[in-house]
Specification:
Elements (H helix, E strand, L loop, with lengths): L1 H24 L22 E5 L1 H4 L3 H4 L5 E5 L5 H5 L2 H4 L7 E5 L2 H5 L4 H18 L4 E5 L23 H18 L2 E3 L1 H4 L20 H16 L1
Parallel strand pairs: 1-2, 1-3, 3-4, 4-5
Helix pairs in contact: 7-8
């Protein structure tokens, strides 16, 4: 019995010595390890998308921007409402790095108010920014028309509902919208005017739509934004 008690006491002593040694030797304070978190940045390849109506659809982008990654999402006859309702198929699926938006002239044909036109454009811009925040948006002014009596003007196209006075007012609102949304505004309106304040005849095929010469002029302006 004495031997059992002796050995039990020895074991207890050894355990006490072990715990004292362990406590003195090792740091038992709780350490907080800070882990550096690197925010993932979405990077997309250069991919330039043109969004709009017939003026965009009939813009031969492959001809004027050869060897560049260009997408034509123009649809003839489309309005600001039509564009707004199809952004998923016209924009999002392409993941563009830059979007050039030109829309609104067909709304004037339908006698849509200037305020509603700009409001629809604003909604499209906000939706693009929310769904593709890495896309840089360039907002183009609505182009001027030519409603003169020149034989080149097609009166079935220029039938009295579009007026440069309205276009000027809308473009002023688009300037403010671009500032509000932090966008680049491209004043193509002034670039296409003649000395009488109309769409230059050589730049148009019918008073509204753009000729090859007109598209060459437009390309000269837009290519600088493509390159930046």
């Amino acid at each position: 019995l004495k031997n059992v008690i002796f050995y039990l006491g020895l074991v207890v002593l050894i355990l006490i010595i072990f715990f004292i040694f362990h406590y003195i030797t090792f740091d038992h304070t709780v350490k907080v390890v800070e882990k550096e978190v690197i925010k993932e940045v979405k990077v997309v390849d250069d991919n330039y998308l043109f969004l709009g109506d017939s003026i965009t659809e009939w813009y031969d982008l492959d001809k004027y921007y050869a060897n560049l990654p260009i997408i034509n999402s123009g649809l003839a006859g489309y309005t600001t409402t039509g564009i707004l309702g199809k952004l998923d198929t016209l924009v999002y699926q392409y993941n563009p790095s830059k979007v050039f938006l030109l829309i609104g002239t067909n709304d004037l044909e339908l006698k849509t108010s200037n305020e509603e036109i700009v409001d629809n454009i604003k909604k499209s811009i906000k939706n693009i920014k929310n769904n593709r925040p890495y896309s840089k948006i360039y907002l183009e002014s609505i182009y001027p028309i030519n409603n003169s009596n020149d034989k080149k003007i097609d009166k079935t196209v220029i039938n009295g509902n579009r007026h440069n006075e309205d276009i000027i007012e809308i473009n002023k609102m688009l300037v403010e919208l671009a500032k509000e949304e932090g966008l680049v505004y491209i004043n193509m309106y002034d670039e296409l005017l003649d000395e009488n304040g109309l769409l230059k005849l050589e730049y148009t095929v019918d008073g509204l739509h753009i000729s090859d010469v007109g598209y060459e002029k437009i390309t000269d302006v837009l290519i600088e934004y493509i390159k930046e």
